[in-house]
Amino acid sequence: MLKFVPTPTKNAREGFKLVHISDPHLSNLDNVSWQQLINKRILGYLSWRYSRRYIHRLDILTALIQDLDTARAHHLIISGDLTHIGTPAECMQVSAWLEKLGSATDISVVPGNHDTYVEADNSQTIDLWSDYIDSDTDANRQTDETTFPSLRQRGPVAIIGLSTAVPTAPFFATGRLGHAQIERLAQLLLHTGEQGLFRVVVLHHGPLADSNKFRKRLMDSAQFRSVIKAHGAELILHGHGHHPVKGILETANAAIPVIGAASASLLSGSEIKRAGYNIYEVNTTASGWKLQFQSRSYDEDTAAFKIREELEFDLPASVLS
Ligand SMILES: [Fe+2]
Ligand SMILES: [Fe+2]
């Protein structure tokens, strides 16, 4: 089925399953107008025309969506870069794709740097996906008209969505959270930790010191890590690198997994770069949480996804982090 259908026990406290995909870069620029190719967008357009259109493949993304049936997951997370250069037309394509993919209740999205490629009127671009981005309730929405951090609770999991997506100069793909978002993140981590929820923080850029090359880095990653060290989290998910990443953020009480997903659509001869996605199962234990992780990657010979790696993490109870 070309749709994400959540497994029915969506309020299960035990065995709650998440799937995480990233960087599908699924839009098409065939009909882009030259007026829209201002500033940096012309460079992104040329990159798409001569390279990206051939390596980010819709047939691979479609095979991934079909493979999601095997995961029997309760919720799907998409960590940005759904477009190439973030034009209104691309964002409309993504909006239509999301609506076909499934309900905004079952799918959570944060934007990536390609979705905010240049300064734009958000109401014509990423706000078209707001049903898939916004917090569960008005109480969780931000009073200062910013959307992020978003907070969605599903089963025992608090999904905290951040935006690192800011327009940057040509040849840069950096990200920034900003002081207000980081401050609000601290409050949400504290609040959801006190509720004993399994806190999943989702952002596009990798937040570890060595996550990205200089021109692709998260500018305020040190401030992000300080907040996580102070208030804890159980899992940090990101994309951006187009290859699988397994990192750890050490805090006083825990070793928090920091997991980067491969691109959901990339055709590559390199094993590390080939398309992939990740599945997580969350269970409680006497001392906290058990997190089971499975990474799946695209096999060009069979045009299907298969297991790449499986791991388990034991994490302390949220309130102790
Ligand atoms: Fe990307
Ligand atoms: Fe990116």
Per-chain topology:
Elements: E1 16-21, H1 41-55, H2 58-71, E2 75-79, H3 88-101, E3 107-110, H4 130-133, E4 150-154, E5 157-161, H5 179-194, E6 198-202, H6 221-231, E7 235-238, E8 245-250, E9 255-260, E10 276-284, E11 288-299, E12 304-316
Parallel strand pairs: 1-2, 2-3, 5-6, 6-7, 7-9
Antiparallel strand pairs: 1-10, 4-5, 8-9, 10-11, 11-12
The structure holds fe (ii) ion (2 copies).
Architecture overview:
By secondary structure, the chain is α/β, with parallel strands linked by helices. It is built from 6 helices and 12 strands. The strands form 2 sheets. Strands 3-2-1-10-11-12 form a 6-stranded mixed β-sheet. Strands 4-5-6-7-9-8 form a 6-stranded mixed β-sheet, with helices on one face. Strand 6, helix 6 and strand 7 form a beta-alpha-beta unit. Helix 5 packs parallel to helix 6. The chain is globular and about 60 Å long. The termini are far apart. The mean pLDDT is about 90. The structure holds fe (ii) ion (2 copies). One fe (ii) ion (FE2) binds next to loops.
With strands numbered from the N-terminus, the spatial order across the biggest sheet is 3-2-1-10-11-12
Tell me the Rg in angstroms: 18 Å
Oligomer: single chain
Strand content bin: 15-25%
What is the overall shape? Answer: globular
Q: How do the SSEs run, as a string of H and E? A: EHHEHEHEEHEHEEEEEE
Largest sheet: 6 strands, mixed
Q: Which residue ranges are poorly predicted, with pLDDT under 50 across at least 5 consecutive positions?
A: none
Averaged pLDDT = 91
Structural class by sheet pairing and helices = alpha/beta
Please report the distance between the alpha carbons of the first and last residues: 40 Å
> Count the strands?
12
| Number of H/I helices | 6
- Estimate the helix proportion, in percent: 10-25%
Bound molecules: fe (ii) ion
